[in-house]
Amino acid sequence: MRIKRNFEVGGASDVGKVRNINQDRILVKIGEEPEFGEFGLFAVADGMGGLSSGEEASNISMRELERWWNERLGSIIHAPHSPDEKLTLIQESLDEQFNLINETIISFGNQVEKKIGTTLTVIFIYHDYFITKHIGDSRIYFIQNDEIKVVTVDHSWVGEQVRQGKMTQAEAKVHPQRNVLTQCVGVRRGLEINGTFGFLNQGTVFLVCSDGLHTMFDESELKKYVKEYMKSGKSAQELAEKLIEIANFRGGPDNVSVIAAWS
């Protein structure tokens, strides 16, 4: 039996307390099918702070994702395929779109003679399944009951050190090379897209966030705030704004963005 979804969603992005320009962008798109309820696309892009015009790269990524939603997704959703076949087509189409976004940013950078780039992290929910596509060091968290897990891989130098057992997560959060990415969108051709696919239980809370948020929290803290806000009946928008408020209270050294959602 498939879940009929109805999303509770909140999202916010803030320049933080140190930067002059917000190079982060978020995107939330919700559609609906009468039989299965709502489906959605949730995305965060973090323009490269060490590169010029990072906000242009994140703007392009969100604009082209919205174009995909408006112009390409409908032909898959409304095609006479089974839900499982549609999910496969959506995964393939998102891969194509990531590569198109990459080429678009590279082309724009060449035109303006600037090196620009962005992270790009997307989760697509359709029926009772999720698809993620991801490049960079933004993250997607799943929180349910007493568990929290990261369903993306940090494409960063410190992320590689953590995966190899050479560094702890706590050390990675404060390491001077924590902002060095091993892969981003718009810098070179040949993306190695991190993607996952699976079943999404009803009631699972997911967070899509830039590193300006996740570096300011331990996972246990994120879980605590999610549980508190769910228990008190507060909205996803209130949760998103509270997390950003805390990140800024702790110094806000980077742009900070988060989308919080559940169904």
Q: What can you tell me about this protein's structure?
A:
This protein has 263 residues and is an alpha+beta fold. The protein has one domain (8-262): 4-Layer Sandwich (Phosphatase 2c, domain 1), CATH 3.60.40.10. Helices cover 38% and strands 26% of the residues. The chain is built from seven helices and ten strands. The protein has helices at residues 54-77, 83-112, 157-163, 169-174, 211-214, 219-232, 236-249, and strands at residues 8-14, 24-33, 37-46, 120-126, 129-135, 139-144, 147-150, 194-199, 205-209, 256-262. The strands form two sheets. The protein has a five-stranded antiparallel beta sheet. A five-stranded antiparallel beta sheet has the order 2-3-4-5-8, with helices on one face. Strand 6 (139-144) and strand 7 form a beta hairpin. Helix 1 runs antiparallel to helix 2 and helix 6 runs antiparallel to helix 7 (236-249).
- How do the strands line up in the largest sheet? 1-10-9-6-7
- What's the architecture, going by CATH? 4-Layer Sandwich
Tell me the number of strands. 10
Count of structural domains: 1
Structural class: alpha+beta
Instruction: Describe the global form.
Output: globular
The number of helical segments is 7
Mean pLDDT: 91
Oligomer state of the chains in this structure: single chain
- Residue stretches low in confidence (pLDDT < 50, at least 5 long) are none
